[in-house]
Amino acid sequence: MCSNSSLLVGKFLCLSLLLFCKENDLFLDNHWKLSRTRESNFISPMTCGSCHSKQLNAWTNSAHANSFRSGIIWQLPKFSHSERENCYKCHLPNKMQIVEVNINLDNPKINIFRNSFLDHKDFSLSCSNCHLRNNIIYGPQPSENLKEELHGKAAPHKIKIQHEFDQSKFCANCHQNASDGKRVNNKLLMNVYEDWLESKAYKENKNCQNCHMPNRDHSFKGIHDSEFVKNGIQFQFIRFEKKIKFTLRNIHVGHKFPAYSVPRILIYVKKENRTFQLDEIGWIISLDLQNEIKDQRIQQGESFQKDYDIKEIKNLFQIKSNQLTNFAFEIWIAPRYHYGKIFSYILEKEKHITLFEKFHLQKSIDDEIKSRYLIHKTNFSF
Ligand code: HEC
Ligand code: HEC
Ligand code: HEC
Ligand code: HEC
Ligand code: HEC
Asked: pTM for the full model?
């Protein structure tokens, strides 16, 4: 990013660097910086929603409306204020909330079961964080739908149209690590924007908003939504001779599937109430984030293929090869898998854990389990 590096090198170089920056990088760099430095850049989403109820309803169920949750909160008391800023940049990019959260976290009498940050929609990535700066609402060219929703009324607030809202770069601020960010096996932990640049979607002029905000929908559906995921991929189990052949194909996901090291696609075989896991697909890295174990993410247009040997499956369940038996092959999505693993490990191993940490770690682990869902099942008899 232009502005950060230029701070380090003095005024003249800074000016010349600025000249080389693209115009939209300048707008966006400044846009994201302002949201964290001025308390006045905030109006509650409920207030915006009194007129923009469609956007409020959609956003309320989105991951953005839940961007400041237990998984982050339990870690923050361990960090200095400046270390916390690293997290706030993407998870709570607003000065007014940051000040209040810091006061609460620094108070030793903090009530550990206080859920106000979790339930209160002001403490999240809300309307103002993306749209409001210095009393001006920034947005895309308004759509025809918007005019209908608001019955042709004039806006009560100043509006500035910025075409950056229609571009993938807008999302990159939080969904793409800077090139000097943490790498595992030389890959950035979050590389969604760069992966998108390599995708078929990019060649077809489909950006993040086209897929994640169709008709400007603000529910930002992603890996937590079963229908959304199913529309992006194809899968099948077919029997061929002595094997069950499994194929999982990325058709319409405009980056790797899944995008990061967090989610997993879990393949199970079941018989009555016994279950074995056959595969764990995703980018699997060690819990300390140092080593890659394997990377089986699927690029757009590519497939994951695997043959499961019928005899071996029967062996797993200790069933004789000539005994006809019913089996179910299932595909599950675990959107927050990695966090569930690491938080369970910490809860189990860490000796000096405060009640505050324990409460939020447990909540985060429970939420992870609840977020898993079945997307497909095929029954076979063999
Ligand atoms: C009292 C009603 C009201 C409130 C409150 C309100 N708006 Fe608006 N807003 C409007 C109207 C009316 C328009 C104009 C629609 C049109 O262009 O026809 C509008 C337009 C917009 C646009 C489109 C601008 C563009 O260039 O695309 C955005 C974005 C927006 N508002 C966001 C917000 C946000 C964020 C808040 C809260 C901080 C908010 N509004 C509060 C009524 C309101
Ligand atoms: C560059 C933006 C960015 C920064 C900086 C960032 N995060 Fe995140 N974080 C994300 C995104 C995006 C996700 C969602 C990942 C997904 O859904 O796969 C996420 C997810 C998480 C989750 C999982 C949410 C849950 O509870 O299930 C935790 C925990 C988390 N981040 C903690 C942190 C902490 C702690 C920091 C600061 C040290 C931090 N993050 C800094 C962007 C960021
Ligand atoms: C993560 C950033 C983000 C958040 C949070 C967000 N928006 Fe938006 N909003 C956008 C983007 C990006 C667009 C333009 C999408 C496009 O061009 O396809 C947009 C477009 C709009 C529009 C124009 C819609 C149209 O049909 O022309 C309105 C109005 C709006 N947002 C209001 C809101 C309100 C109200 C909230 C909170 C309830 C909100 N936004 C939260 C990023 C955000
Ligand atoms: C062609 C459609 C398409 C485009 C373009 C696209 N996505 Fe996605 N995205 C999907 C689908 C479908 C999923 C659900 C499957 C999955 O999780 O990979 C998804 C999932 C996600 C997730 C959930 C996390 C995860 O680990 O999978 C995030 C975050 C995300 N996309 C961000 C982005 C961003 C940022 C861009 C633009 C740089 C973008 N997407 C472009 C279709 C698209
Ligand atoms: C200011 C930072 C920020 C910006 C800008 C931003 N996001 Fe996010 N986004 C996040 C964070 C943080 C999360 C994870 C929240 C959590 O789960 O704790 C997230 C989660 C998501 C998810 C995950 C949904 C799921 O099911 O896991 C999708 C999809 C997504 N964002 C799409 C977008 C798109 C598209 C844009 C651009 C229009 C965008 N985001 C802009 C911070 C941001």
From this structure: 0.94
